[in-house]
């Protein structure tokens, strides 16, 4: 079997699973597959999975995006996330709108960070010639 035929999941380390669950569930709106899973929480996202697990020694160490969601109605999703308290990052070297949405041709992306500084992205699924 080739890995190109297998499902892949994003895995995110956090320092405190209770605090992380509040962010991922209340602010991002994800639904846990098993709310009582303990220090490892799995979320269904389309046909893929996001795994969030407690690991204080590894949390927040990545310096790049650890998970991305491609959505059809980017503006509506960004607005809904902002209404739930998500703050999108602004990067000094990139131009963005007032909400924190960066545009690269037709590709639009907004980055935010979870409570441990793990970078997450919401994009419109367009390549924009990148």
Model description:
The protein is an alpha/beta fold and 130 residues long. It has one domain: 2,3-Dihydroxybiphenyl 1,2-Dioxygenase, domain 1 (Roll). The protein is built from two helices and seven strands. It has a four-stranded mixed β-sheet with strand order 4-7-6-5. It has a three-stranded mixed β-sheet with strand order 1-3-2.
Search tags:
single chain, four-stranded mixed β-sheet, 2 helices
Q: Which blocks of ≥5 consecutive residues have pLDDT under 50? A: none
Number of helices: 2
Number of domains: 1
Give the class-level CATH name.
Alpha Beta
The strands making up the biggest β-sheet line up spatially as: 4-7-6-5
User: Based on the structure given, which CATH architecture is correct?
Assistant: Roll
Oligomeric state, counting identical vs distinct chains? single chain
- The Rg value, from CA coordinates, equals 15 Å
Round the mean pLDDT to the nearest integer and report it: 92
The count of β-strands is 7
Structural class estimated from helices and strands: alpha/beta
